[in-house]
Amino acid sequence: MDYEFRKNLIEGGYSARFSMEHQFLARWVIEDLGTDDARIQTLLNHIEAHLANGTTLEQRGPEMTLTIEANEVVIQSNDLFSEQQFELEQDMDLYQSESIAECGIEDFEAMLHSWRAFFTK
User: N or C, which end of the chain is more exposed by having fewer CB within 10 Å?
Assistant: First the structure.
């Protein structure tokens, strides 16, 4: 998983760029996670617990849901939960691919450490 973090030195905000299949993860990092160090630590603690005993996690935010299960991390738009009740048409596949990101738990953990190191320097 490739990613890059940037800080706008004029306005002070952050941005994130991720590889094509992980673009929704960039949105989650900036809009949902932000620079909440306590939440990052909670996620890192949960990852450690998951790797030790397989515990699962689902954090539903106002717009996105994070799920950790079976050594996979899935972040998806809450809009997809309601759409799962209906069969998606062919032209909705692109929208769905832009509303979900999946990665391995180790990659996700490394990204969290990188993000924390970036905004705390």
Answer: C
